[in-house]
Design a protein that fits this description.
The complex is a heterotrimer of chains A (478), B (83) and C (347). By secondary structure, chain A is mainly α. Chain A has helices spanning 8-21, 27-43, 45-67, 71-108, 126-141, 151-159, 161-164, 172-180, 187-220, 227-258, 276-282, 285-302, 309-328, 332-355, 368-390, 394-405, 417-432, 439-443, 448-465. Helices cover 71% and strands 0% of the residues of chain A. The chains are: A mainly alpha (478), B mainly alpha (83), C alpha/beta (347). Chains in contact: A-B, A-C.
């Protein structure tokens, strides 16, 4: 079951009604737990068992760490939980990738070996619930969070259906207090939730799913198209992945909000960023914060004695982002994509360090031309990165990029009306909407006619342009 | 309540290459231009060197604002160097 | 009025806006708000209708039915529905209880379960679909897709453009082009609502730019899952033929589809699954005349098609006379079984 499947509206309305019936009673947590596990089961049974197992392990470890005095014991509990979460992730997501890497390494060392290929299927949500577990246990370990005192509440947080399949990767510190307090949705919350859901559905169904077939076609065989078509494909994929993923996040945030729960923002107009660092503060925010807090900063602290500080930061950035790339999928193209972003972040850091003297108490005298240039440069890196990210193999990515930079004219030209229109719409939206404004939240404060007109227009766009056949959400595959 | 010492303030501003910024007890790192996750450890390292102290990983990760940093420095120095 | 009352007011005004907007759009681009079953009659107008055509638009683009009716001296009727398949024909067949001859056109496109008629849910009762899905042991994703279609149809009775995004997009583009005084030359709208064309189009797929062909294949692939030939359509076809056989003579025309369609959408395993399903039908309903028009030499060539599955006028000028020839028994090895068609023609 996903948010756009036919049974989801039924599921959600039933859950909201039941929640209303048992309000302010202890049953509420169990209802939420039951609903979330039903949602998980509809995806996969293995996945559900894994969610339950990691929840139980992490809950227990959280309590043990909190109770333990001995630092060594605390550390051992932490490592046990990390091994469980990351082990499950490695086993189900990276088994073949790791064995392949070992095999090719042995091959280059003159010890050819045949590597078995196993396929367990990727349980839905695995990349998300394991990360949720890791952040909980680490936060408890560092004393930033008191451990949950009721297993049902903690389990409901981990399996919470709005964020189960594809995030946002909300921290226990944000979600658990809301679940414990049995927050209520006000009329305003419900309205904002609906608006988020509607906006997300428009992004997913009316934009991402409409451009998906042509993008898929161009990426399936880049060698046969000319450079203009390839450029169109790269831009089309940038549009698709943004609308698909931020649309899903909006729907998740919307569902939770209809129940009164606030999930953290996951996207904030990322393509308006004027630097790659800003891009990562606006793209998949909960994931980049996760990697910042649980990978990059610990790495920085552990290596702070290193001799060359700027080299240290760059190396840590590269490593963190390569891991972040690997999180997206078990393939070298993802690692490379991450490393590219890591390198871009390091360059960006070197550049801002050089120009830092010019910063007078935070005010940058940036010309509008300079802003435009930095925006375009950032977009260029991001779009180029998506080519590597989307390509089915490194060889394909190479063909794609080479034909693009050589501006090959020998291939076929295909103009996709869907990609062109979607790109124009997205550019217009980015020009019109202030990147720091939260459109949905602010709209709910407006007048009644404006709200009715805005929601009506979104509904109309959805009814007129929403693709009817189901294309799976891109990010739930990660 | 701990006051932010001039010495700490100077180290921070120098590391971040800032001429002037109002740093108070409750100032969050994210409110100071240039002080982000990338420069965080660099700032902490500069503070460690300036005061001749060494923080544990847990202590660095637990920092929430400049007041916390000041208190941490004070605790390490046993309050001896407070001006 | 409290916050809740205001919210209800907002939601209802927004829904009213969507209702209005979708109706205006539907009228603008020509999306029917009701099922578009027409009625078509061929042949001598003074004789009672004794024959029925059950087929999708492929059957009309392949065969010149007016001349078939004239040559057979027979009045033929049909209830054309765009994109229809045996599931819909089975329901529409009940409108013609008087006929004694039934022509049924099938193809790799029509019998593929994954291509679903837009009006399936309007024509076929959901109970029938569910029964057939259960009997066919359809997988969960297919059942989900069909149920999705029924609920979309229900939504469409209020908001007529729901699930019709392709029609809206192409319709708006054509409207825009015609306002600019230009004809649409870049891409066709897929199956146009006009099912029965007396004149087959002269357009040739072989003249298409390669990009256009690829785009069409891509959108066709995107809208469908793995080809499947053993589901509700298969069961409907058997029931349809049985009933038609009870009423009289039955001729099944096995129609060709273009080479690019076969190569781009289907795999060899799909083609053999299709053949298996045809021979199952043949065994299940004896006494049916099978006319294989898909084995005419070279008929899958792209120059005979106006799009991936519909024959153009060049294709029709080959297939239609060949159908008459084989029906009359010029090639007796091809046509076996019932003789009543021949005797009717002789009369």
């Amino acid at each position: 079951m996903t948010f756009t499947s036919v049974e989801f509206p039924l599921f959600l309305s039933l859950l909201l009604l039941l929640q209303h019936a048992v309000r302010r009673s202890a049953l509420e947590t169990y209802l939420l737990l039951l609903g979330s596990y039903l949602f998980c089961v509809s995806g996969s049974l293995t996945g559900t068992l894994l969610v339950f197992t990691t929840s139980l392990v992490d809950y227990t470890v959280g309590r043990r760490i909190h109770a333990a005095e001995d630092p060594g014991l605390r550390k051992r509990w932490l490592l046990a939980s990390l091994a469980c979460n990351l082990g499950i992730l490695a086993f189900f997501k990276y088994a073949n990738f790791l064995m392949g890497a070992v095999g090719s390494m042995a091959g280059t060392m003159g010890m050819p070996m045949s590597v078995p290929h196993v396929d367990f299927g990727l349980p839905p949500g695995i990349s998300y619930f394991t990360f949720t577990g890791v952040s909980y246990v680490v936060d408890v370990y560092y004393g930033r969070l008191d451990p949950s005192r009721r297993f049902a509440e903690y389990a409901a947080h981990v399996a919470y259906f709005p964020k189960f399949l594809a995030g946002p990767i909300a921290r226990a510190g944000d979600v658990l207090p809301q679940l414990t307090a049995h927050v209520r949705a006000s009329a305003r919350d419900f309205e904002v939730g609906l608006a988020y859901f509607l906006l997300g559905a428009v992004k997913k169904l009316a934009i991402a799913d409409q451009v998906a077939p042509h993008v898929g076609l161009i990426f399936s065989d880049p060698g046969q198209f000319d450079a203009l078509t390839l450029l169109q494909g790269a831009i089309g994929y940038s549009v698709q992945i943004y609308c698909d993923f931020s649309g899903y996040s909006d729907m998740a945030i919307g569902c939770a909000r209809m129940m009164g729960v606030r999930l953290p923002q996951n996207f904030a107009m990322p393509y308006s960023a004027t630097s790659i660092a800003e891009f990562w503060r606006r793209w998949h925010i909960t994931l980049s914060n996760w990697f910042r807090d649980y990978v990059f900063l610990p790495l920085e602290i552990a290596t702070r004695a290193a001799r060359f500080p700027s080299l240290r930061v760059s190396a840590n950035l590269l490593l963190t982002m390569a891991l972040c790339g690997l999180w997206h999928g078990a393939a070298w193209t993802f690692v490379l994509w991450g490393a590219l972003h890591g390198a871009a972040l390091a360059c960006n850091r070197a550049w801002t360090a050089r120009t830092a003297r010019r910063r007078r108490t935070g005010q940058r005298a940036g010309s509008s031309l300079g802003t435009l240039a930095s925006r375009l440069l950032t977009l260029g890196v991001v779009v180029g990165g998506w080519i590597i990210f989307r390509a089915e193999s490194w060889a394909m990515a190479e063909v794609y990029l080479l034909r693009l930079v050589r501006f090959s004219t020998d291939g076929m030209r295909m103009l996709s009306p869907q990609i062109v229109v979607a790109t124009v719409v997205l550019i217009a939206a980015h020009l019109l909407v202030d990147k720091d404004r939260n459109w949905v939240e602010q709209l709910a404060e407006g007048g009644v006619p404006a709200r009715a007109a805005a929601y009506g227009t979104l509904g109309l766009v959805l009814c007129a342009f929403g693709a009817s056949e189901i294309v799976p959400f891109l990010y739930s595959g990660f | 309540m701990a006051m932010v010492s001039e010495e700490l303030k100077r180290v921070i501003l120098e590391t971040l290459k800032l001429d002037e910024w109002d740093l108070t007890d409750g100032t969050l790192a994210s409110e100071v231009p240039g002080w982000d996750s990338l420069s965080h450890v660099t700032v902490v390292l500069a503070v460690e060197q300036q005061f001749g102290v060494r923080f544990a990983s847990r202590e660095v990760i637990g920092l929430r604002n400049i007041g916390d940093l000041q208190r941490l420095v004070d605790a390490k120095l046993g309050g001896a160097r407070r001006a | 009025m409290g916050a809740k009352g205001r919210l209800v007011g907002i939601v209802f005004s927004a829904l009213a806006l969507v209702w209005l907007g979708t109706h205006v759009l539907a009228a603008l681009v020509g999306i029917p708000t009701r099922v578009a079953t027409g009625h078509k009659r061929y042949g001598p107008s003074d004789r009672p209708v004794k024959a029925l055509i059950s087929g999708s638009s492929l059957t009309y683009s392949a065969i010149d039915w007016a001349s078939v009716a004239d040559r057979l001296g027979m009045a033929i009727e049909s209830w054309p529905v765009p994109g229809s398949s045996p599931a819909e024909w089975e329901q529409l067949q009940r409108r013609s209880p008087q006929v004694t001859t039934t022509f049924v056109g099938v193809s790799l496109y029509d019998l593929n379960e994954v291509s679903v008629c837009e009006f399936r849910a309007n024509i076929v009762p959901i109970r029938q679909t569910l029964e057939d899905l259960r009997a066919a042991r359809a997988d969960v994703s297919f059942v989900r897709r069909m149920l999705n279609w029924y609920s979309l149809t229900w939504l469409r009775s209020v908001f007529p453009t729901v699930g019709m995004s392709d029609r809206v997009i192409f319709g708006l583009r054509d409207k825009g082009l015609s306002l600019l005084g230009r004809r649409n030359e870049s891409d066709d709208t897929g199956a146009a609502l006009q099912v029965v064309a007396d004149e087959a189009p002269t357009e040739r797929v072989s003249d298409w730019p390669e990009g256009r062909l690829l785009r069409r294949l891509a959108s066709m692939r995107a809208n469908q899952g793995r080809p499947w030939f053993a589901g509700p359509k298969h069961q409907s076809l058997i029931r349809l033929l049985r009933r038609a056989r009870e009423q009289g003579a039955v001729v099944v025309l096995v129609l060709p589809v273009s080479g690019p369609f076969q190569e781009g959408i289907l795999q060899p395993a799909d083609t053999s699954a299709y053949e298996t399903s045809l021979s199952e039908v043949e065994r299940a309903v004896p006494g049916v005349i099978w006319v294989r028009l898909d084995d005419i030499a070279g008929i899958t060539s792209a120059e005979y098609y106006s799009d991936l599955v519909h024959l153009n006028s060049y294709g029709r000028s080959i297939v239609s006379p060949e159908f008459m020839r084989r029906l009359r028994g010029d090639e007796p090895t091809r046509v076996t079984g019932d003789v009543r068609v021949t005797s009717q023609r002789a009369r």
